[in-house]
What we know:
By secondary structure, chain A is mostly helical. In chain A, 77% of the residues lie in helices and 1% in strands. Chain B is 71% helix and 3% strand.
Amino acid sequence: MLHLIVFSVFGLVCVAGAINLLVQRHPINSALSLVVVMGSLAVEYLLLGAEFVAAVQVIVYAGAIMVLFVFVIMLLNAGVEEHTKGSRVAMLFGIPGVLIGSVLVAWVLLQHSGTGSVAVGALPGPPKVIGWLLFHDFLLPFEVTSVLVLIAIMGAVVLASHPAEVQQSAQPDEREG
Amino acid sequence: MTPNLHLWLIPVLPLVGAAINGLFGRRFSRQTVVAIALGFSGTAFAVALWVATQASFLPVLENLAPWIRAGDFQVDFAFYLDQLSLVMLLIVTGVGFLIHIYSVGYMWEEAGFYRFFAYLNLFMFFMLTLVLGSNYLVMFIGWEGVGLASYLLIGFWFTKDSAASAGKKAFIVNRIGDFGFLIALFLMIKHFGSLNFVQVFRIVSGLPAEVAGAGLLTSIGLLLMVGAAGKSAQIPLYVWLPDAMEGPTPVSALIHAATMVTAGVYMVARSHAIFDRAPQALMVVAIIGTLTALFAATIGICQTDIKKVLAYSTISQLGYMFMACGVAAYSAGIFHLMTHAFFKGLLFLAAGSVIHAVGGEQDMRRMGGLRHHIPWTFWTMTAGTFAIAGFPPFAGFFSKDAILWRAYSSPYGSWVYWAIGVFTAFLTSFYMFRLWFLTFFGEYRGEVATSHEDEHSHAGAPASHGHGGIHESPKIMLVPLVILAVLSVCGGWVGIERFDKFLSPTFHAGATGYSAEELSASTPAPQPKEQGGSEALFTGISVVAAALGLFLAWLLYYRRPQLPQEIAKALGGFYEAVVHKYYVDEIYAAVFVKPLIDGSTRVLWQGIDRDVIDATLDNSAEGAREVSDAVRHMQSGNLRSYAGWIAAGAAVLIAYMIWMGTR
Amino acid sequence: MNLGEFILVSIIKIVIAVGILLTAVAYTVWLERKVVGHIQNRWGPTRVGPFGLLQPLADGVKFIFKEDLLPPHVFKPLFIAAPMIALVFALTSISVIPIGNWVTVFGVHTPLEITDVNIGLLIVLGVTSLGVYGVALAGWSSNNKYSLLGGLRASAQMVSYEISLGLSLVGVLILAGSFNLREIVDAQGGTFWGFIPRWNIFQGQIVAFFIYLMAAYAETNRVPFDLPEAETELVAGYHTEYSAMKFAMFFMAEYANMITVACLATLLFLGGWHGPHRFGPPFVQAILPIFWFVLKVFVFLFIYIWVRGTLPRFRYDQLMAFGWKFLLPLAIANLVITALIVALRA
Amino acid sequence: MVPLSYYLVLSGILFACGVAGFLIKRNIITIFMSIELMLNGVNLSFVAFAAQWHALSGQVFVFFVMVVAAAESAVGLAIVIAVYRTRGTLNVDQVDLLKL
């Protein structure tokens, strides 16, 4: 019972955050809603016993990725979203498509809700075991992702770095400051 | 132990020369080009001579590399040398080398000097490949290659419309023959599973002879004959050869008299095992040869262009060779091929020398009395003329006499062949002496040769010489003439019997299934059909025919030069027909070319190509454009639209999956 | 222990912990003013109470009663939320930090921390990594260029140094084989050859300790890495527009973070509550571990203040270059070497 | 005991919200956040399935998803910065040309 209550509370927080993300017109509000979603998801992970995943969720998603988002929003000083009518297709086909798809999936899932249920901490994911899995069964994907991250770092640096002439004109200013 | 003869060297050497001259010749001086061209072809000749000294080891099979391996079917790059190919090898390299030398003098002033020698070397390469190939496919490479070289050389003066057209004509007519040849090859692959001479002949000799009816071997034989007729200018595919005289005279001598056109004869002789088993095909060969000989000779009588006369004479002589092959007297055919290469090469070169002397004029009616001006040419040409006319002891006498005798005495022969052959010999003698008298005797009928360049520049021969008057050719042209003249005189002394014996391993090898009668068909042994004594009588008749020709020519063109016009008037329409080569070109144009062009234009081009194929493509392109016009609005560049499509598609997929899952 | 008892004990512990923490924060401020004052050859606070000991109390009263300014151009919700976020996360992280062994008080057996979890270290890291939102949002919502620059600097700096910080801890984790802070401390009990304690700092993690030290200074925006609030260029950085209690929250959050970092350093590198041989009566023996712990934290905090009093500030590009080009490679090298040694020993 | 399907429905709702955000929002950064939301929804179902089938590899996959998400957001945000620098806008409706 407690499990269901906790699940429902944080599930509702999750959904509320997600909907707030859609409703808010300022990106920074959306970003904070997303942080809330991630935080409550971490709690859901804890409920399922995945404590390590929950911690990493907070550290990586909330603590790093979303900080990056907030940082970019601040850097670009992104303002309130304009309401341009750019795409009829998205409204005519996309939104109904999403609605139909999600309703269908939910319907099917709830039809079979009796087939399986999980208890609190159903599958503890201690860091040691997960580390073992990562470095043995998933060693190759792990290494490949490391290469991916390296590429992403270089790509981000190259993409976001100023063009040469801007950099040259910017450097003296920095020194003066 | 068979020594390694390095046969591959012989064709490859000219190829290297052709490659060097063709790729870099533009920057070389003429001397360098000559050195390269003569060096490589001369070396090839030397290697061929050395190979000939090793003749005791024949036959030799040299397998260089595998080419096609498909299941059991296998074709290799392999060379095969036996007595037959050795004879051809020596003719090709020897005569070819002499004509190379001659060309240096003849072509010296031409613009595409390096190009000419590159082509000439290329021709040598392909001709040697043809001769040395150990299977039909390698032979076919050479076969096509010499066609290509011939095309390039006929159209050497490609800026001249007639030369370009003549080149195309030669190429296209040859395609018809090659078509037959190819089908013959396919039949062999299908039924014998091999193209290797040795294997094919072994299989063929195991088959029973097809005495009546058109079976497999007859079909193959006839198809091969079609190929041979194309390459060797036999009825009905001879029409390209006279036009091929548009090319430079050395080319006419080398390709269109001495070597390439004899490839058909070589091929038939090489395939003797097939023809021996297919008497029907053999008969067709003989009939075609005989008719061609007679037919071309009659046309030759009325030609006025010195090279055209020689061209028709070539066709006629090739007819003799086919006649010989057609009566299974292959060695006689090859013998005549050899002597013909000598004297016809000589005649062409001498004719070139004459043309050179009179500054590009080719019409005999404007020559005359040249014997004092160009004595060397006159005497060599005389040797050639007597040789082709068949006077003893010149080379042509021996070979032609052998053919005529075999045509009668062979088990496949008939007196009809012999009679036509003798009549043709008379005609040959007549038109050759007509040429001789018109050119060298009487008064000079041309204009005084100071400003001949304008009017003769059409002729293609070296018209740009900055010399005046009639003059003898340079020594570099005369040396080959003299050598060939000596060969024309002496070339036949070897005699048909010894030649027969030399070639007998080729023509009798593997013929285990032969009956004794057939075996002896190509030997001069006494025949049950006729006593040996009558051979002398036949020889006498043919010599008399030749002499008759000489007399008639003397009468008409030396003694009473106005007589030919009167005879022509008397003959009327027939004479016209002969002058116009029996209107064969016109008939071909009306029967084949025009319907083909009309059909292509109306049906294939305007009907199928434009209204069906083009229309299909145009309409589908138009349709695609219209559809794209409508659909491209989807690709607006708007990210959210794309996402909308994806979402809608995903919804459809989910719905489908659920529907499938709940069914 | 039933649910009610659990909740009761938890509440008591939370109240005690927060009380101790806030007091510690207040007196860390006092300590800093005193120490820096003496370093700068002056007295520091002396007027309020003996040795100025009541100065923090006076400051608190002042902050509470000051007018709470709300500038007109700020983004109000976040402007108000930002200091709360900062303080909440700063205080939260203390909840998993143990200050001693299990004790039995009034018949209740309980660890000397609010809760003992398996992944305590990760939670501390996660919560501190969330602290950056307070600073960043404060800078952005103030709608002021100095604040914005401060906020930007803070977020970039904290994200950058978090990597080095985390990597410097991995060596310790490899040695201990656990994320549980209590187990990590337990692994450091005992001595080498009877006199060198088996602290991680003496187990080859000395390099990691200094990396941690430097990264921690940057994480807490302290000198010499206090670029986000560099007075000379950014007025006061991200809290330029803040005053009264909101400013006090940032202030408290900063010092609470310092204490958290000091506790973590003590737990991970300095052997936690382990000290020399036990001596004295049972009561003293019970108290001694806490004493050792507090002493180590105090030493660490003293170093903090000492550094503040002596070192100048970095330039921003130097700060980033230092973090990415020096600390990070060093931390990785330390990690690799530690892993190699452990693997070879095993 | 909570039925597995509740978790899955929650994850589905999050995912659908992400898709809807992609469709509705005009700001590139917000759209990016919608992608992260979708990834989070997927992660939840991974963990839920892991608990259901007692297979820890489900949790390991979450790590890979996170790593990929981190890499993707780093590169993506760099692209956003580059786009903003050249176009001066973050509105996707105005960024519909490949070439300026």
